[in-house]
Amino acid sequence: MRSSFPLSVSVGLVALLSLSACGFSGESGKSGQAADPNQRIVVDNFRAPVADWALESDAAYILSLSGCLETLTRYDETQGKIVPSLATEWKQVSDLEWDFTIREGVRFQDGAALDAKAVVTSLQNVLDAEVPARAFSPKVVKAVKAVDEHTVRVTTPTESPLVPYRLASVNTGVLSPAAFKGATVDPFGHCTGPFKPVSEKPKQSLTLDRNEDYWGGKVQLAGAEIRFITDGATRTAQVQTGEADVSLSIPVSGLAALESDSKVKVLKADSPRTATLYMNNGRAPFDDVDFRKAVHSALDLDALAASVYEGAAIPATGPFAPSEPWAIKGAGTPKQDLDAARKLLASAGYTAGRPLEIIAIVERAEFADVATVIQENLKAVGVPVKITTKEYAAVEPDLLSGNYDMVLSQRNRLIDIADPIGFLTADYTCDGTYNLSHFCNADYDKKVNQAAKTADAEERYRLYAEAGQILQDQAVNVWLVNEQAIDAVRTDLQAHVQDPLARYVLRAESAKSGS
Q1: How far apart (Å, rounded) are the C-alpha atoms in residues 514 and 222?
Q2: Runs of H (alpha helix) within 196-267
Q3: Contact (Cβ atoms closer than 8 angstroms) between residue 173 and residue 70
Q4: Distance CA 330, CA 347 (A)
Q5: Please, which residues have CB within 8 angstroms of residue 296's CB and are 6 or more apart in sequence?
Q6: Which has the higher per-residue pLDDT, 493 or 230?
Q7: Residues facing 406 on adjacent strands
Q8: Kind and range of the H or E element at 163?
Q9: Cα angle vertex 416, ends 203, 393, to 5°?
Q10: Distance, CA of 433 to CA of 90 (rounded, Å)
């Protein structure tokens, strides 16, 4: 196979990302007042960087949404395809090699020129990480090298049609070589984006100024502050009082107040994100498939969606939303069946002993209520449950090591790359780097590995559906509800485009009316 730019996301994916009335873009802020170039804004984000500024970590998402970090390619949510960014074009030159042409005339914020060598330095740093990024690791990328001053070659261990998707991952963002001179990564002054970070308060905020020499055109705002606020109620309150101009990931409990406020616009978009009850398949009693099936049968997903989510989410039908082109055909929402749950518990040989723990991640305010509903449902079939609440950063090591029973979290299927291969590989293969479920199945791995090499989108999606069916048949987790992305912005904010994947928030065109 040989292919070249433009490489588009398939029609099915475009349809998925355009389902809501707001569309996938959610543009806001057409106030009619002139933008003030001296304005600065505040963005409340729901998480803080947890590994300094290492690009292979979730810190890359902070740097990307802040308008600092840029990648070779970019997923454009309004066009529904992969588009140029720091690379102007790309082509597959052999079964295992892709060449990316680096944009000329771009400078890092420290004045250094962007060239192929600088790109290779940044990408190699991610490949060499102790825990590489899921979208760009030695498992999927064999080597990166500079062919000439403006060409970077990416070599894969096996043929991969999705390399341009991987280079749109925020974890492949490009920093100046100077960012890697110390013991840790230093993004300050070393990005290419419209905003440059100038100071931080660890775990609290990041302050950015306009990049006066941005290659992509005039930057409308003087700067911004990104605040790291895990509490959803606080994010809701701050956008309503005007302390914040943008608040990401608004909890359902805050919607009524915001939607009645004339100075706030609520943005909603369908997103490939599912709230999930993760079960530790590697630990008793969850290592028994009948026990896991019993948990499925005990839960009332329709009631959960109607009560806790107040209709802002729909009951899940499995690991995929029914609207997705790779969804399991004919899958319906599992219905509560307490008698079936009791029979399955008996088949598993379960007898009530220690209370099983559900960890509710505090970054999602509604999870405490979700945990309470699940606790009551399981109590009805004789399974005692206790609830604890923790910040995700504090609990992740235990999740990855398998030191937990159940955890409520949510995962976006397209967050690593704009194709579910990243999610399916990282989260459920035997060697998956984010396999919180500690699930391992040879037939599943075979399906996913086959899909990763399949260029034809329809065939790849069929394999994804078959892999999803295995997850469903094995009751690996309970997929609870398919969520919407809900953000809130002040109405004097101009040219804001909602990104349900929260990768791009501050942009060159972002602007604010004068007071």
Answers
A1: 12
A2: 232-241, 255-259
A3: yes
A4: 28
A5: 334, 475, 478
A6: 493
A7: 279, 358
A8: helix 163-166
A9: 30
A10: 28
